Structures are given as C-alpha cells and as structure tokens.
Amino acid sequence: MTQLSQRELEVYLWGAATLLRGLVDASDYKQYIFPLMFFKRLSDVWDEDYRQARDETGDEGYATATANDRFVIPDGAHWKNVRAAPRDVGRALLSAFLAIEAANAERLQGVFGNANWTDKAQMPDSTLKNLIEHFSKHDLTLAAVPEDELGNGYEYLIKKFADDSGHTAQEFYTNRTLVHLMAQMLEPKPGESIYDPTCGTGGMLISCLAEAKRRGGDTRTIGLFGQELITITAAIARMNLVIHGVDDFHVASGNTLATPAFVQGDRLRTFDVVLANPPYSIKKWNRGAWEQDSWGRNFLGTPPQGRADYAFFQHILASMDPKTGRCAVLFPHGVLFRNEEAEMRRKLVESDRVECVLGLGPGLFYNSPMEACVVICRSRKPAEAQGRILFIDAVAEIARERAQSFLRTEHQTRILSAYQAFADEPGFAAVASTADVLAAEGNLSIARYVKRPKATAATGDATLATTWAAFDEEGREFWLGMDALVDMLDGLTPAEDVDA
Fold first, then answer.
1. Which domain holds residue 147?
2. Which tens digit of pLDDT belongs to each residue from 126-161?
3. pTM for the full model?
4. End of a domain among 162, 178, 213?
5. Half-sphere exposure at residue 228, Cβ-oriented, CA atoms within 13 angstroms
C-alpha cells in the first residue's frame, strides 16, 4: 500500500474544504470536514485490522472481533454503507455517527459533533456525495497514513481553517510554536495528569504529550483532561486526540467558570500540569455567582464584569496539585498591570506562586497585533525561586512570514535557557524579589524590571535607526498601558460607565 507524503495528505485534506467554498461560511468548514475525515479514518483502520487478522487466521469471526478491539463499527455504519446511499445522504451519515458513538461510548461519545447533516438546504445530497467521493480517493489506514502524519495533517487543517475563518479562529487555535515552548517550560512527565480548562481543539494537551515523548517518557501513563465551551470544538478535540493515538483522555463540553467538569466531591480535581489560553477579557459571565463561588475559586477576589481573565486565572490556580502543580497561561499584557485588578494581583504575588512572567512579541494572538505574555506559576516553587520572580523580555524573539508571527527554534531555545537559568541577563531577563514587586503595588509589567540598554550614538552622529530605537524603547511601556486603557474602556458595561 502506497504511503501518502505529508504534502500529498495536506493537499488531499484541504481539497475537501475547497468543495464547500461558496456553500457554507469558512468558519463552519470544521463542523463538516473533521467528522467526515474521522469517519473515513475509523472505517479504514477497522478494515485494515480486519484484513490483517483474517489473512493470518482465515477466520472471519475472529477477524471481526479483532477489528472491534480497537473500536466497534456496527453493521450498516461503515463508510462504504454511507457511500452507497442513493439519497438522504445526510440522514445516512447521522445514523452512522450515532451508531458508532453508542457502540464506543467510553471513547467516542459526542465525537462527531452536532452539525445539522439532514438540512438539505445547507448540505444537499450532491454536496455530501462530492465530499464522500473526495475522501474515498485515498486510504487513511495506519499503513498509508501513520498516526503522527495524520495528526500533522489534522493540525494543518486546523491552521488553515483558522486562516480562512478570520476573527473566530482564537476560539480553537493557539500558535503552535508558542504552545510548544510552554510545554517545554513545564516539562510534563510520565504518570502525570495534564489539564486545559479552555482546550479548544486539544493542541496544548497534544503538545504536552509530544514533549513528554520527546524526552523519552512513557506517554501511556499520562492522563489528559480538557473542557471546552463550544460543542463542535470539543468534538474536534476528541477526534484530534484519537487521531494522535491517545487512549487516556477526557474532554468535556461546557462552561468552565459556571460548571467545571472535573470535580471530586465538593472540591475541584487537581492536576500536575495546567496549560491554557483563556478567552480574552470576556464580558458576558456570571460575576454574581463568582462572588459566592461554591468551589472556592475566588480566593484572590472577584474580577470586574468587563473582563473575566482573573476568574480563569484563579480557576487554573485552584486546579493545580498542591505539591506538584505548575501552570503556563497565555494572556494579554493588561493582566500584568491593570489598576482594576491590582488587589487580586497583589494577593497573587504575596502567595509566592508566580515563578516567571514572559513577554513575547506582537501577533501571537490570532488576528490581533497585541503583544502576548505567559505567566508561569507553581504550587511549590523550588528553593532558589522562592520569594523571587523571573521576568523575561522576549519581544524581539519572534519571526514573521506571510503575515504570520511565530517562534523559531532558536527563539524557543533562548527563552527556555533564560527560564532554566533563573538569573539576570542584561536587557533580556531580570530576577526581582516579591518584596520589590509588592513595593510596586504588585505591578508585574515586564518593562519595569527588565531594562533594555539605551541606544547610543556619538554627539551629532545619531542615525534614524538609533533615534527610532530610543523612541521605541521609551514609548513601549506607554503604548502597552494605552492598549490596556482602551481595553478597559471597551470592557465597561453601561452601569460601570455611569459609575465612572
């Protein structure tokens, strides 16, 4: 059987999406393409297992049982059955999806999402037949497309859908080079549990698993947990994990702030590693319920209605194992110094959980020019870090190609080295005592602690480049503050605006 190259696989997968151009909005591609791709993969792998067992034994009953060991495809719910349907293709697809989910409830419940396959106005039989015939061009067996390759193809599609769907991309896509850096900084290990409370399509969970594997660990002993608000995105995360060959995972649908999915009795379940890219400054959330949070997640305080960043932050901190817990959270810079969250930030610094504040360059938030930051916390910091916080100014450690920002390997290496050294590096990293940060009213603005060397030139010999560099350095903290101010004003509810 011919193995597809990575490029051939990508062209093949994206070709399915192009069949929907002009028929559905680009932001809806994912709810049709991913389930079809996954259905084809399940059917082809089932056939592969069946053929191999039958060829070895000649026993068709044994071959069926062997194929069902991986996952069950009930009679009439195979890809070939839907492909043969002469009409009502959407109904045939939906029936197959429901049958497969019911037969594999522990692993595949809800995995196909909730697209309206029977709406012929949206998806007529002709369109569905074209999609099915397109996917039927190639086998998606393990021999033709190994798990790593299909996983890469899946990530390629996620990125392409993000590019095509515009501002909605942040719901399900986080820059993968940044996610890889976060995973390296947290060093997930065999036997640990990893959690993402706003997991999107599961990229952070998969990156942690890949990092543990890269370090030579047995990933079979790692448990992955995630919660995602948007039902179809949670379904895509489940598909993504199965596609990557993950067995031990739990992805729940629902609102993490209102109804956290992972609890033990009257307490939140805790995890060794937590990664997250929470939704940026959401305004529609139940602030009143948070004031009396039944899970005790308001230990730093209640965030303003206009932004729930510190609600997600406190949920993450409360979800960390009290001994081994560590987290890396991607935020906009405003969380480091906005006045309205100053008291919560002061309590956070006093708790001595903040280990590192990493500032990154612009464009790493999808479709936003804002600079990003990553806050790393530990339940118990190592002795050498206790009472101290490392600040890293990596705004220049970024590349930009084809209107996309990303971190090259050398950028990740420099940042990781500075984090592991936990020492001053002029113009790049600085260690501050928590006492000094508290003296600054808990302000975690990186520019306050990491001082860049000023551009100098001989008298009367200033060039445009040196003059601009000096202006840029002096103005950066100001403009970060202005970004936060505009964000604050935009986040005010009418009632808060009147009070102001």
1. 6-162
2. 999 999 999 999 999 999 998 878 888 888 888 788
3. 0.83
4. 162
5. 27
